Amino acid sequence: MQAILLSREEVAKRAKQLYESTIREKVEVEENIGKMVIIDIETGDYEVDKTGLQASRNLSKKHPNARLFGIRIGYNVAVSFGGVMERVYK
Question: Which among 90, 68, 83, 84 is positioned nearest to 12, based on CA atoms?
Answer without folding.
Answer: 68
